[in-house]
Specification:
Chain lengths: 458, 136
């Protein structure tokens, strides 16, 4: 299998991982196996949706993070953040107070990336108009969805809109604005504040692009904490000029229906990666009526439910909806000085074609793949079919596939082992050693703190 | 590799199950995605035809390294004039079926378009057997 050169920001902390199977079961692409008592993430299969991190009861899966200190090496230090960030703060803090806190922690400027959203919207519409064949057009906003399509629905990569994301828009716009104030390009440091690990991967290894536009990435939960340490509810400096090009449409863009609402009647929005998968299965089979535009997001409630967001996603949505009402619609801004002077950004938002990266084939050689599939099918007959996960694979089918690929053994199945013991084919000691190898010695030591996750509301 | 799936007449909510399973396997075999798409579309249409027009059916799939053969046989009313049924827009679908979004008379032509070989054998009041072959 070709190893995709994709950057993944998720890491399993070996000290914290207890080798339970929550993450493995939660992963929508079966990217996780438990090996030697630790979760392992396959780089080819991971789409950065963050579901494993959410599911981990030991908080052992974490998102790598750039060191915030680097921001001191630039004269102009710009915090670029999606508007959704404002939504997580308690409503008692005003926008000015949040902006003031950002400046206090070391930034010289703060820009919400969805400004001016009209440029991106027009650029996307232009793409849709000029490539009428690849319908439904699928937004490439959510990087987890783009990767999901690349690895699991390769035939649909053609439907992805070849346009960049709001963070590219915001970055170009911020650079333009600062240059107008006399800044030189190499004096500007852009720091993208991300709501999820998927955006990190896409900023660091952009799909269909050569270089990352941001100089650093800051996790939103980390920034939230820093802001909360310095924020105060006293009168704050008026920073509304930094939001001059922010519109209602921009604020709502990263929420569910934020994009699709601009793409006519035959558009749809789906959030939550499992919902998206169900729909893409149908779409791939052409089992859906004619649709022009699809907005697909990996998180429930879209970016308000991003893995690095703090607080309750529904409260975040509510605050943003209220906030959006105070801002003009995007088209009302289209004649503003800044937007008129930023026409060339539209060109910069054009992205390269996105290529398929299928990650589910059993073998490069079709004849061998078929042999393997036949063998896996026979193995399945002997497995219990309860998908317990005690073998370290998410289900019996996945174990059988791992076996034919030489990544697992028959004896990994605890049911088979029991049977073999009963039939006298394997000694009890040997069987025990096998399980110990898979799950580590610690699994068998008495420890009152060692237990799985309780059901919520238990 | 041989696989079998049952089809229940009238149960539209289950339709598509077999084609989804086959799709998963073809992806594992590394079959070209356009080719998979053709197969899945043809299979789904044939499956829906059994659901919409017949009582019960069976899908038998035989996968080889270079091709897939699908035989969909059903017990049902059969097709009196296969050539006529093959025409675009020809449909005997009931009002109920039409209300569910099927019955445009595009299924069989669509199957034809998406398969390399297609044979239909049918006996009125007994049933229909659709055999399709796709080369990878
Ligand atoms: N398995 C079958 N058993 C009996 N009759 C069938 C069967 N398959 C097709 N037919 C007949 O052939 C006609 C045309 O089939 P076709 O699939 O092209 O259109 P349809 O099923 O009516 O509509 P659509 O497929 O567009 O939803 C059907 O209306 C039906 O009369
Ligand atoms: S981020 Fe998503 S795709 Fe990647 S391992 Fe975790 S659950 Fe699986
Ligand atoms: S929906 Fe938003 S927060 Fe969630 S993975 Fe996609 S881009 Fe990230
Ligand atoms: Mg039909």
């Amino acid at each position: 299998m070709v190893t995709a050169k994709t950057y993944h920001a998720l890491t399993v902390d070996e000290k914290k991982c207890i080798g339970c199977i929550h993450c493995m079961k939660a992963c929508p692409t079966e990217a996780i196996r438990v090996v030697g008592g630790l979760a392992e993430i396959s780089k080819e299969r991971c789409v950065d949706c963050g579901h494993c991190m959410r599911a981990c009861p030991a908080k052992a899966i974490y998102v790598e993070q750039d060191d915030l200190k680097i921001s001191q090496t630039f004269k102009y230090r710009v915090a670029l953040f999606p508007a959704v960030m404002i939504g997580q703060f308690p409503e008692k803090y005003t926008e000015n107070q949040i902006y003031a806190a950002l400046l206090k922690i070391g930034f010289t400027h703060a820009f919400e990336v969805e400004q001016p959203i009209g440029i991106l919207k027009d650029s996307m519409k232009q793409y849709c108009k000029t490539s009428p064949n690849n319908k439904p057009h699928i937004s490439s906003f959510c990087p987890a969805i783009v990767r999901l399509i690349q690895i699991r629905y390769p035939s649909l990569t053609e439907n992805l809109i070849q346009r960049k994301s709001p963070h590219d828009l915001g970055a170009h716009f911020a650079i333009n604005e600062l240059k107008k104030q006399g800044a030189k390009e190499d004096e500007i440091g852009l720091f993208y504040i991300t709501p999820c690990n998927a955006k990190i991967s896409s900023v660091k290894s952009p799909v269909g692009e050569k270089e990352s536009i941001a100089d650093g990435i800051i996790n939103m939960n980390d920034l939230y904490n820093r802001v909360m340490q310095v924020i105060n509810d006293k009168e704050a400096e008026d920073t509304s000029h930094l939001r001059e090009n922010l519109s209602r449409d921009g604020i709502l863009w990263s929420l569910t229906r934020g994009e699709s609402i601009h793409f006519g009647e035959r558009s749809m929005a789906i959030d939550g990666i499992h919902n998206v998968i169900k729909f893409l299965e149908r779409l791939e089979n052409e089992e859906v009526p004619e649709i022009d535009f699809l907005e697909l997001r990996a998180c429930d409630q879209s970016c308000a439910g991003g893995i690095l967001m703090t607080g309750n996603r529904f409260l975040t949505v509510t605050r943003l909806e209220r906030r959006a009402k105070r801002y003009p619609q995007a088209w009302k801004l289209k004649d503003s000085e800044a937007i008129k002077g930023s026409k060339e950004i539209k060109q910069k938002l054009i992205a390269d074609k996105i290529t398929p990266k299928p990650a589910f084939s059993l073998d490069k050689d079709r004849v061998r793949a078929l042999e393997k599939m036949n063998r896996a099918q026979r193995i399945i007959c002997f497995l219990p079919g309860v998908d317990c996960g005690a073998c370290g694979a998410p289900n019996c089918q996945a174990l059988a596939e791992d076996m034919v690929n030489g990544k697992a053994k028959m004896s990994d199945c605890v049911f088979l082992q029991q049977m073999w013991e009963d039939e006298g084919k394997i000694s009890t000691t040997k069987a025990f050693r096998n399980v110990e190898k898979k799950w580590g010695e610690k699994r068998f030591q008495a420890d009152c703190n060692k237990r799985g996750k309780r059901n919520e509301g238990f | 590799m041989n696989l079998e799936f049952q089809i229940e007449g009238g149960n539209f909510s289950r339709a598509g199950h077999a084609s989804s399973e086959i799709k998963k396997m073809l992806k594992q075999l590394g079959v070209d995605s356009r080719c998979i798409k053709n197969i899945v579309i043809a299979m789904y249409e044939a499956e829906v035809n059994v659901v919409a027009h017949a009582f019960e059916g069976l899908i038998q799939v035989h996968i080889e390294s270079d091709k897939i053969t699908t035989v969909i046989s059903d017990k049902g009313p059969g097709i009196a004039d296969v050539d006529l049924a093959m025409q675009e827009g020809y449909s005997t679908a009931s009002k109920k079926v039409r209300e569910m979004g099927f019955g445009a008379g595009m299924g069989l032509p669509n199957i034809k378009k998406n398969t390399d070989e297609l044979t239909i054998e049918s006996t009125v009041n007994k049933g229909t057997t659709v055999k399709m072959v796709n080369h990878f």
